[in-house]
Each structure stands twice: as structure tokens, then as C-alpha cells.
Amino acid sequence: MSSTPESASPVVTRFAPSPTGSLHIGGARTALFNWLFARGRGGKFLLRIEDTDRERSTPEATAAILQGLTWLGLDWDGEAVSQFDRRDRHAQVAHQMLERGTAYKCFSTQEEIAAFRAAKEAEGASYAVFQSPWRDADPASFPDAPYAIRMKAPRTGETKISDTVQGIVTVRNDQLDDMIVLRSDGNPTYMLAVVVDDHDMGVTHVIRGDDHLNNAARQQMVYDAMDWQVPVWAHIPLIHGPDGKKLSKRHGATAVGDYQALGYPAAGMRNYLTRLGWAQGDAELFTTDQAKAMFGLEGIGRSPARLDFKKLESTCGWHLAQGEDAALLHEIEGYLAAADRPALTSEQRDLLVRAMYCVKDRAKTFPELLDKAHFALTSRPVDVDEAAGKALDPVSRGILGELTLRLQNASWTKQELESILTEVATAHGIGFGKLAAPLRAALAGRSATPSVYDMMLVIGQAETIARLQDAAA
């Protein structure tokens, strides 16, 4: 059966990770593409945990995957499905294939299969597709022994995969074996389980990495064997590192949780990952709602995308500047927990929100934002670093002492603060820059800070005067 057109039925996509480790950045992008495609069309985005490999699957990995998706803001519909819990259903379908004549019982042992391939190799064959002698055997000849159920794959002609990204992919049927769908121990194979789950979950579009493209031909045969509708295939290229090689730990962070712990905002990650291998016109920076409206399979390229950390940081900087203060505070607290850094106190939380307007548009990550907000998060006595301390000479200390008196009865507005500081600087025959340096040292303990007016307005009159008095003394 042919794939359905993109708009023929309500869209249902799925993300189906194996819980054998953390959520990889490539898997996160696959999940994001599925999520955007479904959400932008009023469809459903489902989650299935492919945990049939009982030796490698762990609850900890499942929890890490769910946490990574949650951090990215990718919500799924309904409960996450366990593939292992559906093994009885998979076996049921294998027996239905037997009844339909599209599968058969195979009593061949591992030793017999190995001997077959060894004989073919001796004849010069580089690869031998196993041809079971039980494919058309008379049931009367069946032994009383364990058997596997194999699918009856066509042995002539071609199987064509109509892929939205890759185009028409053709596979010669003589290169495909009669794959096992149910092992002799009663356990279903991955190839069968995936198709049964996708069919039962109503998945209309299978959007996944192109490392699964070779599986599509065999899985399509299962659809045909059961007379089920084949979904729309979309196999997306993998992500490479900046050097063009397959992404690995040598390129830096590969797990989604690592990016949270490094302090990248989720909105920035979504924007960047959306553009990683997908494009629409000149759109580079966009909100999540805009991404949902724009995203389509036709914009996915065929070549591997390259991870570019500078572009990621630039994208994240734009989203930090656009972010709502309360939402940024909430995500910063998540970052601190992920990075195993001390939590903010109640007072620090309030001051950070007040400082957002003068720090969020100058940072690309949360560590940078917190560093710029140091003046609001620190407490007296302010620790002055060596560079800033050079500005606190005796003359400057005397000026700060004078300034504290002028600020006692000031109305705390930027206009009046500018007037007072300008008057003091003029009275001492110095430019404002000469006055700003000791002010930065007194207020923040650093020489690189937001404007002195912003710092004074954020920490307030009493705290400003107290810090200036500390420095003057």
C-alpha cells in the first residue's frame, strides 16, 4: 500500500527512544521535529519507550529521557508506552501473519543457518541471504520442536520506499531475507514490534534518523503482509560535529541534560535545533509558536547538519533578551539544580528579577547572565577583585564618602542620580568615567558591570549607601 498524503488524516507522530542512556542531542532534534510537525497541525505527539532490550534498558535512562524532553518543553499526549509491555500483542500479530499465509514456521537451528552461510561464502558469495527450507514445507513434515516465525518476503522485484526527505529509495528484494518476526523463545523482534506499535498507536508520519532508512523496506513488508496503511516516511540526516564527522563526546556535550547544566535556555535550544537541518526562507530566529506554524517536512535537507556552538550561543542570547523575567527565573533555578550549584535565596530571587532588564540582553547563557547580575546577588561586605580594587585609591574613597552624604536624601530616580553624580564629578574636576570606576568597585567589586545607575536602582537606596560607606572606609 502507498503512503498517505501529508494532509489526508489527523497527524499523529511519535518519538521512540531506547532507554539505554541519556537523551542524545540527535534524538532530541528528532523528537522536536515530530513535536513541531504534530503541534503545528493540531495533531498528536506520542511517546514510546522501546525497552525490549532488557539487559541494556534501565529505569534511570528512561527517567533521563523524560526529563530531557520535559526540559526542552516537548509535551506528549497520553502516557508513555512501554514496548516491552506490548510483547503479547506483537506475538499475536506474528500468528495472524501465519494464518494469512504471509509468514511461516521455521525450524532451522542456528547451526544450520551458520552452515548455510559458510557454504555460500565458500562459493564466493560476499553476503548470503538465508533461504529457509521451511518456507514452503508441508505442515505434515513439521517436527515437534521450537520454531521461529519468519515473514515471507518477496524474492523477486523491488521494494520502493517513498520518503519525504530522501525521495524514492529502491531496494532489490533478493537482498532481503525472510526476517524473523517471532523468535523460537516466543519473543518478538524489534522489526515487528515497531510496526505493530506504530499501527496500533495510529501513527501517520514516521519521522526518524536516516540510520533507520535500511529498516524501512523490511518494515514496509510487515505493513503489506497485514494489509495495513503504510505511514509517511521521513528519514532525516544525522548531526555531525563542527569538523563534519559523526557527533561524539570529543565535540563536547552530546546529552540534552548536559546543555541544561551548561546553562543554555530551552527556548534557544528549540530554535537552534529546529534550524539544524531544516530551513524556511531566511528565518533564523523565531519563537516556538512561529516554529510550529512554519515547520514542514519539505524544509528538511538531505545532508548532515553540523553543530555550531557559536551559532547556538547567538540564538540563545536572542531568546534570553526576549524572555519574560519570571520564566527566566524559573529556568535559572532549574539550571542551578542541574549544574549542582547553590539555590537562590528568596532575597536573591527578588533582586535577580529586578535586575533582569539590565542583564538579560547582554548574556548568551545563564552562567553569563548570573555573572552580570553578580552585583545584585552578592552581599556585604562586597568582595572587591584586584582589577577593581585599583580604582579605590584614597582620593576616590574620599569622593565616595562625600557622595554618600549627597545620596541620603535623594529621590531614587535615574534622572536625579545622574544629576548628583555629574555634580560631584564636576566639583572634583574629573570626568564621569573616573567616578564610575570606584563606584563599580564599591557596588559590585568588579570593573565590568552594568551601568552604575542600573545597579543603584536595582539594589536600592539603603544598600547603595551602605556599600559606598564600606568602600569609603
Automatic annotation (TrEMBL):
Enzyme Commission number: 6.1.1.17
Residue ranges annotated as motif 'KMSKS' region: 246-250
Domain Glutamyl/glutaminyl-tRNA synthetase class Ib catalytic, residue spans: 11-313
Cellular localisation: Cytoplasm
Pfam families, alphabetized: Anticodon_2, tRNA-synt_1c
Any GO BP: glutamyl-tRNA aminoacylation
InterPro entries: aa-tRNA-synth_I_cd-bd, aa-tRNA-synth_I_codon-bd_sub2, aa-tRNA-synth_I_CS, aa_tRNA-synth_I_cd-bd_sf, Glu-tRNA-ligase_bac/mito, Glu/Gln-tRNA-synth, Glu/Gln-tRNA-synth_Ib_cat-dom, GluQ/Sye
Keywords for the protein's UniProt record, in alphabetical order: Aminoacyl-tRNA synthetase, ATP-binding, Cytoplasm, Ligase, Nucleotide-binding, Protein biosynthesis
Binding site for ATP: K249
Classification via Gene3D superfamilies: 1.10.10.350, HUPs
CDD domains hit by this protein: GluRS_core (cd00808)
SUPFAM superfamilies associated with the record: An anticodon-binding domain of class I aminoacyl-tRNA synthetases (SSF48163), Nucleotidylyl transferase (SSF52374)
Ranges where the Aminoacyl-tRNA synthetase class I anticodon-binding domain occurs: 341-471
Motif interval(s): 'HIGH' region: 17-27
Enzyme class: ligase
Main location: cytoplasm
UniProt catalytic activity: tRNA(Glu) + L-glutamate + ATP = L-glutamyl-tRNA(Glu) + AMP + diphosphate
Entry's Gene Ontology cellular component terms: cytosol
Alphabetized HAMAP family for the sequence: Glu_tRNA_synth_type1
Family assignment from sequence similarity: Belongs to the class-I aminoacyl-tRNA synthetase family. Glutamate--tRNA ligase type 1 subfamily.
Function statement: Catalyzes the attachment of glutamate to tRNA(Glu) in a two-step reaction: glutamate is first activated by ATP to form Glu-AMP and then transferred to the acceptor end of tRNA(Glu).
Summary of subunit composition and partner proteins: Monomer.
Protein's name in the database: Glutamate--tRNA ligase
Organism: Pseudotabrizicola alkalilacus
Upper lineage: Bacteria, Pseudomonadati, Pseudomonadota, Alphaproteobacteria, Rhodobacterales
UniProt gene name: gltX
